[in-house]
Structure formats: C-alpha cells, structure tokens
Amino acid sequence: MFEDDGYALETLAVRAGQSRSAEGEHAEPIYTTSSYVFPSAAEAAARFSGDSPGNVYSRYTNPTVRMFEERIAALEGGEAAVATSSGMAAILSLCMATLKSGDKVICSRSVFGTTTALFTRYMVKFGVKVSFVELTDFQAWQDALDGDTKLLFMETPSNPLCEVADIRAMADLAHSAGAQLVVDNCFCTPALQRPLDLGADIVVHSATKFLDGQGRCLGGVVVGKQELMDEVVIFLRTCGPSLSPFNAWVFLKGLETLSLRMRAHCTSALDIAWWLNEHVQVEKVNYVGLPSHPNHQLAAAQQSGFGAVFSFTVPGGREAAWKVVDACKIFSVTANLGDAKSTIVHPATTTHGRLSDEDKEKAGITENLIRVSVGLENVEDLKADLARGLSALV
Hints:
Layout: H1 9-15, H2 41-49, H3 63-76, E1 80-84, H4 87-98, E2 104-108, H5 113-122, E3 129-133, H6 138-144, E4 149-155, H7 167-176, E5 180-184, H8 189-192, E6 202-206, E7 220-224, H9 226-239, H10 245-256, H11 258-277, E8 284-286, H12 296-302, E9 309-313, H13 317-327, E10 332-333, E11 343-345, H14 357-363, E12 369-373, H15 379-391
Helix pairs in contact: 1-3, 1-10, 3-10, 4-9, 13-15
C-alpha cells in the first residue's frame, strides 16, 4: 500500500490508493468479480456484520473501486470517498444518506439542470424542502437559512456561466447554522481547487468528466469525513448505484494525467476566451479567467487555474446559436464536457432543457447562449473552427 507522506498532488494522482497483490503487478488490476470466497462460515459472518475487514460483495466492496476511492480522497484532501455509477448517483446517494423528511437544502440556481430536477422533482416527494438562490448573492443564502437547513449545495465555477462563490465564506455560513456545505468540484477538479481545504464539508464529482478526461465511462464520487462516507456506503450497499470495477480502473488511469491535462485545458481555454472576447460576432464571453468577469479576483484567489469550460452569447437567439454550433467541424456537438475532444452545446435545449422558461431565465440560460469545453487539440485549429461557426452569422 502506498503511504501518503505529504506528497504533491501529481505524485498522489499516480500512486495514491494502489495496493499490489501477491503477483506484484505494476498497473492496478481490474477485479471483475461479483462476490468473494470466505475461508469459513465464521469469517463470512464476521465480514457481513462488519466485525472483520475485507471484501463482501462488489456492490460496495471491490478492490479496484477502493483504489479509485482512496486516490480521489487523497487528491481532495478528504478522509474517505465513495464511488458511484454516475455523478447524479453520487448526489442522490449523498442526499439519501444525509436528509430526511422536513430537512431543507439550499441550492444555487447555477447548477447542472439535472441536479435541479433531482431536488425539485424527487427529493421534494420525500418531504425535503428546497430553496434556490443566486450563487453569488451571499445575503440570499443567509436569508434562506433556517433551523431545518442541513445542506448548502453549489457548483463553483457554475455551469455554464462560470460564476464563482467564496467557498470559505459559504462554509462559515453553513456551519453557523449547523449545516454542511457541498461543493460540486467537477469543473475544477482537485488539480485546480480543493474545497475541503477552504472549509467545505463534502465534495462531489461526475468522474465522467475531467477525472476520466477522455469521455469513456460514467461514474461519480462523494468525498468527505469518514463518518459521513460510512452512511453513504450503507445507502450504496442497500440500493446499489455502484461503480463498476472496469470504470474505476479507467478513472484510475485518467487521474494519472489529471494535472497535465488540466494545465493544458486552462491554457487553451484562456487563449480562446480572449480571442472570442474581441470577435465582432460575440456579444459576451462568460469565462472567469477574463479580468472583466465579476468573479475573476475571487477565482484567482481560490483556484490555481480557471478551467476549460466557458460560455458565450451571439446576436440572434436560438437560430443564431444553432447556426454557430452546426457550422463547427472540430468541436463535437455533445452535452458532455471534460473530454480530450472539444465539445460545443446549446444549453437551453440540452443540459438545461428540462427547466421551465422561468427557471432558465433565473439561471441565466438564454436562447443565444453557447457552451464550450476546450479539449486538447491545437488551439489555433480550435479558434479557426469557432471562426468557421461564427461566420455562419454573417
């Protein structure tokens, strides 16, 4: 077992969590087994009861999945992590492990559309109260707090407007009310931002995105204190939204290059954002790396990079936005992000398409908004492709 002796993130991303079998393998093995053989009936009983450590059933104990969990926990600076079948499964598992009828969640409006749907369509069915506030309006968060509040949930930077919240201030606010702060760290990853170091209690990821980095597999993960993660494991053991060993292995391989990839993503994204900011056919660029962004200074203070995802608006509404998207040849028209391949999408009709018109307006999801996730292609080729897309408006 690799011991964390204060190594840098790049070293942890390659080495943390790995345990070798008696075979001495260098790469992490994929344990494709559903169950495990016990040496005796007594040992089987001890493992099922938790009196003896060891694998029980791959729904909630699998060596490959455990290696991924230990590695991402080390990268985020958390005590433990629980991996799930998708990013939404991670959020659902966290909610089911921490909330009960009568509890309240305060959530930013600026979250992934399906996250909003989870709270408004399903958690409310179980008596959970949900309030939505503007991500950057601290007073609104404060006003929404009451004695029933258990979770404050946010994405920072947000999807797709790149708004940034002060994590330390929000953590202090949550703790003042006996609540916990949850940060979806999907856009930054621990390579650019470590919310737990800033006071957050829980971090969630869609591992499908930058943690994988090549758009190959679905997965999610929750990171936090051991006691809370034990509760999440109980839900996983009972209800089964488990990460497969193969997907865990893919994510382990993705983490090995995380820091390298995120630096390259950030460099290209900033270059393209500056270029778009000067383009005659672009009304506005929403990228926190630009000094004109209202949260630029805060992002520079709590992030080590500005990320790969941003959005921009063009004149002409949905028709114009679709023309730009359709005219691009390199950018993939897909709602996924965090891929080596650059992607482009129209949020109002895809990622946030299930929101009502009123909720879209409140979240700033306009019909002329386009979101891009900058990949690892040549940056000049990407700019030329966006120029091709924007030329469709002439």
